[in-house]
Amino acid sequence: MPWIIGGALLGGALLSSNANKSAAQSAANAQVASTQAAAQAAKFTPVGVTTRYGSSAFNFNPSGDLIGAGYSVAPALQDYQSRLEALTGRGLTQAEMAQQQYAPLQQAAGGLFGLGQQYLAQSPQQVAAQYMQQQQNLLAPSRERQMAQLQNQLYQQGRGGLSVGATGTRPSGAAGLGATTPEMEAYYNALAQQDAQLAAQAQQAGQQNVAFGTGLLGQGAGLLGQYQAGQVGALSPFSAYLGAGQTIESMGQQPLDIGAQLGGRAATAGANVGASLLQGGLTSARTQQAGASGSGFGTALMGLSSNKDFMSGIKNYFNPPTNTYSGLQVGPVMPGQTQPYSWD
To answer: How far is 113 from 221, CA to CA, in rounded Å?
Structure first.
């Protein structure tokens, strides 16, 4: 009897396995078809566009894949581009000549830098002392003439050796003036006042020297800045012409951008549709696989082989039991036969 049970199990397993393979293949085919449909829906498909500034075109291979893209500028804009190219070339030539044209500014700036450094090489005190010495050297001849005239005048008046008006020691402790004539006292007082004024002017000269040297450096920097600004300014016409040409090119390129944007939006919408197709296809494949997996007959066979009552009946059918009651043996009863009786 085990061979009957084993056969039922084996037959049911084989039938179920074949049914599962068929269901899996069908589900796989459905998934591939859904994926291909989703990919086709999400494919980038730009559109050729024409505007007053130009037009665009896209090239596809027989499989529908994008292999090229281009655009053409409108004839009027092409004419503008040609004229701007000539201006651009002249503007670049002008920029190249600017360095030579502005060279004097650079040279003048270098001279001012050097001169300013010379002025700043001395401290204000050194400049003041130098100024004082220079002024006294300039006044020395006139002072000597004034002294000679005064002495001659006193000699003519007979007062050459007269000395009066000694002042002694001053309240501050400084030495006073010695005795002399009123004319000589007035003369030396004038010299002292003049020297005091020169000292004040010398101090101002030292300060002015520093300020002047600093000013020279600033002027040199200004000239150098003008030189550099001239270089940049000379390049401005070239930059303006080149920018205008780029603007025209961008205007002609607009159809290409618009077509690409439309293709991108279509691809986005197609991707959403493709996702829905893919999800629906996968769901359908799973449902199909679940419904077709396993053979009904094979499953029933495997179920009967595991049913105890069914298998017990089969066993009794092929191997009926023998019972003995009080010496009466009941033999097996075959289909269509009556029950024989025998005594022990």
So the answer is: 8
Helix (H) or strand (E) holding 55: strand 54-60
CA dist., res. 228 & res. 47, Å (int)? 50
Residue-wise DSSP of 204-270: HHHHHHHHHHHHHHHHHHHHHHHHHHHHHHHHHHHHHHHHHHHHHHHHHHHHHHHHHHHHHHHHHHH
DSSP SS3 for 173: coil
Please report the sign of the dihedral spanned by the C-alpha atoms of residue 320, residue 309, residue 300, residue 9. negative
Q: What pLDDT shows up at residue 28?
A: 64
Query: CB neighbours of 247 closer than 8 A, spacing ≥ 6?
Result: none
Q: Which residue intervals of the chain are DSSP H helices?
A: 2-41, 75-101, 103-120, 124-156, 182-292, 296-305, 308-318
Start-to-end Cα distance in the chain: 30
Tell me phi and psi for residue 63, to 5 degrees: -80, -5
Pick the more confident residue, 40 or 139.
139
Q: Which long-range contacts (CB under 8 A, 24 or more apart) does 7-14 make?
A: 8/301, 8/302, 8/304, 8/305, 9/301, 9/302, 9/305, 11/298, 11/301, 12/295, 12/297, 12/298, 12/299, 12/300, 12/301, 12/302, 12/303, 12/305, 13/298, 13/302, 14/298
DSSP label at residue 171: T
Digit-coded pLDDT (tens) for 190-247: 888 988 998 998 889 888 999 999 999 999 999 999 999 998 899 999 999 999 999 9
What is the average pLDDT value for the chain, to the nearest integer?
A: 74
Rg (CA), the chain: 62
Domain ranges in the chain are 2-73+257-343, 102-166+174-251
In Å, what is the CA distance from 319 to each residue of 310, 324, 328, 331? 14, 16, 20, 12
